[in-house]
Write a structure and sequence with these properties.
The protein is of the alpha/beta class. It has helices at residues 12-17, 25-30, 47-58, 82-88, 92-95, 121-134, 143-153, 201-205, 244-255, 279-296; strands at 3-5, 22-24, 36-41, 65-71, 89-91, 100-105, 135-141, 157-172, 188-199, 210-212, 214-215, 223-226, 231-234. The strands form three sheets. The protein has an eight-stranded mixed β-sheet with strand order 5-4-3-6-7-13-12-10, with helices on both faces. Strand 1 (3-5), helix 1 (12-17) and strand 2 form a beta-alpha-beta unit.
Length: 307
């Protein structure tokens, strides 16, 4: 949220250089305010859990958010989820002419497949094309980030020898206030990861339009963003709750022998329980993103296409 200050306040520029959103009292009185319209394209099979996790991330600012839940086709959905989808979700066809302040595209358990082999890839491609002109800023998560980097920039993913699972340390590559998405971050922070694939980091570095905001020796970068902030790619799962990786570990272990998630259990022993170490920065990122959207979007959503 902005700080309203007198127009001639002497330290306004200094505050802006530190990433503080400063607004004059005059502009504040004239400003029109409405709820931010945020869409969530939910591709995860854990329908309820993903909804609740992301809503929790979006509810931590004073900003009002009007949420629109969106789905692709339902062929891959569990039968018991269909009534919930029918009542609370819109199909892409229903919203393809609408504009949004922000959009979140989730991950999906299809990362081992080539993108074009995913049965809803054509529809998803149309959706991502739609976001370029009709959404002020889009956040892509995990496989959604890989899909977005591939669709928008042609960046491939590579299959790893083993699953990357756990809580991994990341280091900022710049001062926290140099980018609106990392404002207030510590130099090091933790991120949950759960995937079998990596993006081609050299291909990312070759694209001048993209900026890598952090790095991890084990997990690679987490936050990649276009320099205008309109496309944001999160390679991990900041939205995960305390028990999410535990459930994935138990599911995987039931199929074959597997290592516990790294740095997740207390003393790396499942019997000691889970230590939550990533939520503060997760909430801070989504607060920063919503503030970025709030600062940059238009009061009249129809004007977003002109930005």
């Amino acid at each position: 949220m902005p700080i309203l200050l007198p127009k001639n306040y002497p330290y306004s520029d200094k505050l802006r250089r530190k990433g503080v959103f400063v607004m004059s009292n005059t502009r504040g009185r004239e400003q029109k305010i409405r709820p931010l319209k945020i869409g969530i394209l939910n591709l995860m099979p854990t329908l309820e859990a993903t909804e609740v996790q992301l809503m929790g991330m979006l509810a931590n600012t004073p900003l009002q958010v009007r949420l629109v839940l969106i789905m692709m086709q339902t062929d891959h959905r569990k039968v018991e989820d269909l009534p919930h989808l029918k009542e609370f979700y819109a199909r892409f066809e229903d919203v393809k002419d609408e504009k949004f302040d922000g959009m979140i595209i989730t991950g999906a358990p299809v990362e081992k497949l080539p993108f074009e082999k995913v049965d809803y890839w054509k529809d998803l491609s149309s959706f991502m094309e739609h976001t370029k002109k009709n959404v002020f800023s889009t956040v892509h998560i995990c496989w959604g980030a890989q899909a977005g980097l591939y669709y928008h920039y042609g960046i491939e993913k590579t299959l790893m020898d083993h699953k990357l699972s756990g809580i991994f340390p990341h280091t900022l590559l710049h001062k926290s206030y140099d980018n609106p998405f990392t404002r207030g971050f510590d130099d090091r922070f933790l991120v949950p990861h759960s995937r079998y694939t990596m993006i081609d980091i050299d291909a990312v570095k070759a694209i001048d339009e993209l900026e890598i905001l952090d790095e991890s020796y084990f997990a690679g970068p987490h936050i990649i963003a276009s320099k205008d902030g309109r496309q944001v790619f999160l390679n991990g799962h900041w939205e995960y709750d305390r028990g999410t990786l535990m459930k994935e570990y138990e599911r995987d272990r039931a199929i074959k022998s597997t290592m516990p998630p790294f740095n997740y259990f207390v003393a790396d022993k499942p019997e000691f329980g889970v230590e939550v170490t990533w939520k503060a920065h997760a909430n801070l990122f989504y607060s920063n993103w919503l503030n970025f959207v709030y600062q940059g979007t238009t009061y009249d959503l129809e004007e977003i296409s002109n930005l």
